[in-house]
Amino acid sequence: MFAGRLVDRFGPRTVQTAGAVFIALGYLLMSTVSTVWQYYLYYGVLVSIGLGFTVVPLLSNVARWFTKGRGLATGIVMSGIGIGVVVMPQVSNKLILAYDWRNSFIILGIVALVLIVAFAQLLRRAPDQPKILTATANTGKSLSSSFQVQGLSTRQALRTSQFWITCLISLILGYAIQTLMTHMVPHATDIGYAATIAAGLLSTIGIVSVFGKISLGSLADRIGNKKVIIIVCIALAIAFFSLRFDGNLWILYLAAVIFSLGYSGSSATHSPLMAEYFGLRSHGTLYGIHQFIGNIGGALGPFLAGFIFDTTGSYQWAFLICVLLSIVGLISSILLKPVVKIPAADL
Predict the structure, then answer these.
(1) pLDDT at site 335
(2) For residues 282 and 149, what is the distance between their CA atoms, to the nearest angstrom?
(3) What distance lies between CA 87 and its chain's CA centroid?
(4) Residues with Cβ < 8 Å from 156, sequence gap 6 or more?
(5) What single DSSP character describes residue 306?
(6) Where do the H-state alpha helices sit in 66-194?
């Protein structure tokens, strides 16, 4: 949320650079870890702050620059995460084998600092909104286009039911997505498959997500972000329901592919949806709040799924909860309506 507020005020370059410093500092300190509390502080706090200061500014800036093709542009940016999921574990493994894990953290921290700071300097803040509004008026674009540029203030958006419905959807999707991302490999090994096969499921998710984010982002530009989120919820419900049938490897891979499409659509539509429904005036702040609530779900999901497994000896109930939550997300998405009346607010 803090990063979103800062990007609204100062633009993406400064915030992205600060994010690089936090990530690099966390990685460099990870090379000195000797106790559990250090791990939680260096990786769980410092690196996480850095990630918040990099992802939110990038996507908020994309939303401001691309009034047309916003979903496709967001999907292309987010596809980088899928590429990283596939490539970086291999790179890290080779570094560890060659230099040990402590030196590998130092190398990765320095590389992250140099590359992210360098590329951050290439980011440009989107043109001022009044200039865009003038251009919109001169070209005779629709009122909805002007609304998307001007948009609601933070307080106005917080007074709408639509904002909290989108946050509920984000909470549900964060819960479901992070549950499977964390427990897919343990689930596969628990039912008898080798660790290499289980790891292949995660690689499948990463590879499919690269193409899924681009294609579903483009689809959102044509049919709307709301309809793609409906597809996302349906895909997640099917994927988790399929995982309740143990034993067949092809079912696991099918569930991984379907899940990856849901994960991809979620990644490609959240930021454009916020711009579509609430405009660009406070997009960074609102998107930051939206992601913060989604990450609460992302923190709860894996923890509760692990607790359920430890208690029952199976992931069946954990996956069933994700099915039911996906259905709740589906209903919430269907009920989501555009903001018709702008609430009064001080800001």
Answers:
(1) 94
(2) 10
(3) 19
(4) 342, 343, 344, 345, 347
(5) H
(6) 70-120, 129-139, 143-150, 154-158, 161-190
**What is the pTM for the complete model shown?**
0.86
Distance between CA 57 and CA 275 in Å, rounded?
A: 14
Sign of CA dihedral 203, 207, 208, 213: positive
Query: Which parts of the chain sit beneath pLDDT 50?
Result: 130, 132-143, 347
pLDDT value for 166: 96
What pLDDT, on the 0 to 100 scale, is given for residue 193?
87
Name the packing angle between helices 161-190 and 316-335 (round to 10°): 160
For residue 248, what pLDDT is reported? 82
Look-up of token digits 């918040």: 52
Q: Could you give the CA distance from residue 290 to residue 271 in angstroms, rounded to a whole number?
A: 9
Alpha-carbon radius of gyration of the chain: 21
First to last CA, the chain: 17
SS3 238: helix
Residues 6 or more apart in contact with residue 86 via CB below 8 angstroms: 203, 206, 207, 210
Return the SS3 of 94.
helix
The CA distance from 115 to 106, in Å, is 14
Tens of pLDDT, residues 207-216: 899 999 999 9
User: What confidence score (pLDDT) does residue 143 get?
Assistant: 41
Q: How far apart are CA 146 and CA 149, in angstroms?
A: 5
Closest CA to 203 of 95, 83, 322, 306: 83
Spatial distance between the Cα atoms of 113 and 24, rounded to a whole number of angstroms? 5
Tally of CB atoms within 10 A around 295: 17
